[in-house]
Structure formats: C-alpha cells, structure tokens
Amino acid sequence: MNNATPSLLVQGYEVVIGFETHTQLTTQSKIFSRASTSFGAEPNTHASAVDFALPGALPVMNKGAVQRAIEFGLAVNAHIAESSVFARKNYFYPDLPKGYQISQFEIPVVQGGSVEFFLDGHKKTVRLVRAHLEEDAGKSLHEDFIGMSGIDLNRAGTPLLEIVTEPDMRSSAEAVAYAKELHKIVTWIGICDGNMQEGSFRCDANVSVRKPGAPLGTRREIKNLNSFKFMQQAMDFEIRWQIEQLEDGHTIQQATVLFDPETGETRSMRTKEDAADYRYFPDPDLPPLVIGREWVEKTRAEMSELPRVMAARFMADYGLSEYDAGQLTQSKAVAAYFEAVAASSQQPKLASNWVMGELSRRLNADEKSIERSVVTPAMLAGLIARIADGTVSNNAARQVFDAMWTGQGKDVDAIIDAKGLKQISDSGELEAIIDGVLAANAKNVEEVKAGNAKAFNALVGQAMKATKGKANPTQVNELLKKKLG
Ligand code: ADP
Ligand code: MG
Prior knowledge:
Blueprint: E1 9-10, E2 13-24, H1 49-52, H2 63-75, E3 79-80, E4 83-84, E5 86-90, E6 100-104, E7 110-111, E8 114-119, E9 122-135, E10 139-143, E11 148-152, E12 159-165, H3 172-188, E13 201-210, E14 220-225, H4 228-247, E15 255-260, E16 265-271, E17 281-282, E18 289-290, H5 293-302, H6 307-318, H7 322-328, H8 332-345, H9 348-365, H10 377-388, H11 394-405, H12 412-419, H13 427-440, H14 442-449, H15 453-466, H16 473-484
Parallel strand pairs: 14-15
Antiparallel strand pairs: 1-2, 2-12, 2-13, 3-7, 4-18, 5-6, 5-17, 7-9, 8-9, 9-12, 10-11, 13-14, 15-16
Bound molecules: adenosine-5'-diphosphate and magnesium ion (MG).
C-alpha cells in the first residue's frame, strides 16, 4: 500500500489531506507576454497590453514555461501530455481584467507522477493527480490612508505550475513533509526560486476527517499557506475544529478558509465554488500545446541528477544511512560541498558527520548559507585527513575548525602546530601522565577498585584534562583499565 507511515488517529478520527501548490516559474518574462516577472517594481510598470487585457491583445505562449513544466514532469515520473489544452476559468475580480484566468482544465500538461520522502524512518509516497500551467492574477492594493484601492498588474500573467496531489496525506506532519520535499524538488531542478515570503511557492491544504473505513469526509480548503510553520499550525487548528464540529453533531460545509497567524485560527472566506461555476471552456486564442517526444527526451538527457537519485547513490557508494543521505541532499550546494570533502579526504563517513554536525551548527549560528562558508571543502577535507591518520583527536579537531572558522588561519597543519594540538601518540608519554593522575586521585582509585564505574569515568576525565584533550580517549581508557587491573 502507498500509505506506509503508521496512520495516526486523532480522537478516533482519520485525517485526510490533499495539496494544491502554486509554484511560480523562474522565467524572465510572463507566460503569455514579454513583460518582466521580476518582483518589487513600481506598480504597473511590468505589465503589457496582454496583462492589461487591452482589446485585441493576444497571448503568445512562453516556451520557457513549457520547458519547466516538462522538467517537473520528468522529476516526478509523470506523463507529459503530447497535446494539452488551455482553458478559460471565468470569474469576476478586480485584479483579473480579462474576466477570466487562462489555465488548463480537462487536459493538463503533466499527468500523474508521485513524490516520495521519508518521515520518521518510514517511506511515504504521495501520488500526484496533475500539474498544469496557468497565469497568476494581479494584486489589489488597499491604500487605507486615502481611502482608495488600486490595482497592480505586475504579477498578472506570471507563469505558475499548479501541482495537485491525491488526498494521500494522513497527518499534518506528513503534509508538511510533502510540501518540504516538493519545495526541494522544484528548487533543485531550478524551475522555481522557492521564495515563500514573496509568494513563489504557495500551498492550499484541503483537509477533511472521517471515522476509519468511512467514505471521505467533506473538505475545507485552507488557502495560500506561505510558510511551513503556518502550514502546520493551520492544519492542526482545522483538524481540531472539524472534529469538534462533528462531535457536537454538526456537519462540515465545503468551504474556502484563510489562516490568521495572529490568532492561530482558520476562518471561512466563502463557500466553495464548483468547477461548473467557472464555466471552463478551451481558450480560442491559444492552440493546443503540442510537445514532441524529442523535446521531452532532450530535456531528460540534459537534466541533472535528482535529489532522491543522488541520496540513493550516497547510500550505495559511501555507505551512508537513509537519514544522512537525505540530509546531505537537502540542497544542491550542501550535496556538492559534501561530495567535494568526501572525494578529497577519502573519508565519506567523517565527511558526512562534519558537514551535518560542526559545519551546519556553525552555519546556522551565523545564519550563513553553505556557499559562503569560511571553511572551504578543501580545508575541511584537510582536517578530516588529520583525524583519520591519528594526528588530532576529535576534540582537538573541533578547536582547529574553530580557528579556521574565526579566521585564525587556513592551513590545518600550521594551526595544529601553533596550538600544540598534536595527539599524544607516544604511549610512554601518555603512561607517565596517567601515573601522575592516579597518584593525585587516590580516593577515586579506591572507589574504582570497590566497583564504582562513575569514579572510573572521573579518572578518564582527569587524564584528558591533563593532556589538554590531546590524548586518544580510547587509548586512555585502555591504559587506565590495564593499570587498575
Ligand atoms: P477542486 O478542483 O474543486 O479544488 P479537486 O477534486 O481537484 O477539487 O481536489 C482538490 C484537492 O483536494 C486535491 O488535492 C484533492 O486531493 C483534495 N481532496 C479532494 N477530496 C478531499 C477530501 N475529502 N479530503 C481532503 N482532501 C481532498
Ligand atoms: Mg482547488
């Protein structure tokens, strides 16, 4: 079965979630006009006759938007339709000057496919229904200080790929994991910049609940979730609210709701329209979108390795765990950094531990992206080589890393020398230090002999301290055991 994660009941109810995600495509110009898609310009400066819906202005398909839809379809193993159809979705709203949105309805460009990810060690597959091309609408600007509203059509005609799932998710955590995986895929293949604050990746969560085994419940759709945190909060609130309604003997009305981050609540915006309300029909201004097999195959050949494929390769080639491989393929930059370190140190396990451990801790603390890391892959590989050949202990290596991170030097060996961090490998020297520790801690020695394990650890700690962390802890352990019988 496709639902491999254990299904969690909430107060005896099963949660059912399906997602519709609007991803803004990274084309320079709009989907049906040559106006720029760049964000943040003066209102109505990035809009052409087509975007203003001037009479007689005709849409012309942007090939780059189609190219990106094909790339997405290939990334999720979907069928790319050889011929798909643009349709008019008719509704009235001030930010939609044509009175209809050009979208795809009966025959979308991308059909089927799936997104796979891991959650708490379980593999989950979410089936996709479709992904279709459409144009974004403009924006209403409410200028409260002059009591008027204006319309900005800069966003009108921005290309979107709307990605729709089957109702396959069974918890809010699963739905957030899906959204994160989808976000990773579209940014990895570069069809979307993934900027959620600017609205480049907006999710609608369709949520319903039911008793196990019952038919699907009535859903409410939470619109325009633009952060993973709000997404989780909104769904959790909605699930609790729906269960409460049903427990109180009410029924759920299909509706479109908005999440208010201030109150943490969802509230109804309008009752939901049906497809019939939109009076869809094929757009007579646009011919069917025909995509030849050669175009698809050429795209397939030119696409870079996908995150899941790369993660599987990391597991096979480097013996990494599923979790580690997933973490190291969170972005192309992280994966490239890791591969560079693993290749030049020939120590993939250590490379993985350091990239996910010390390096990402320091990057997070300094709010830096890995591309801007002061410690380059070559520097980290050099350090790892010194751990692997026994020159420095892990503890000392962290001090070397800190020195490089804080700009005290770039050369690993020079830092080790300057700070006197070379591991004590001479067992005679180490024995002498340990004898000193034993002599100075007679009480602990008595307790160890009486069978106190804590006292033994205290002696290990003392010995490490006496060597300023430069001893190999395993060696210290062994020597102490030998000496204490
Ligand atoms: P519409 O186009 O009217 O929004 P769709 O049938 O295309 O409706 O479904 C939209 C989304 O809602 C899809 O992601 C689908 O998986 C999800 N969905 C449909 N029925 C339910 C349900 N009962 N509970 C939760 N999600 C649902
Ligand atoms: Mg919908």
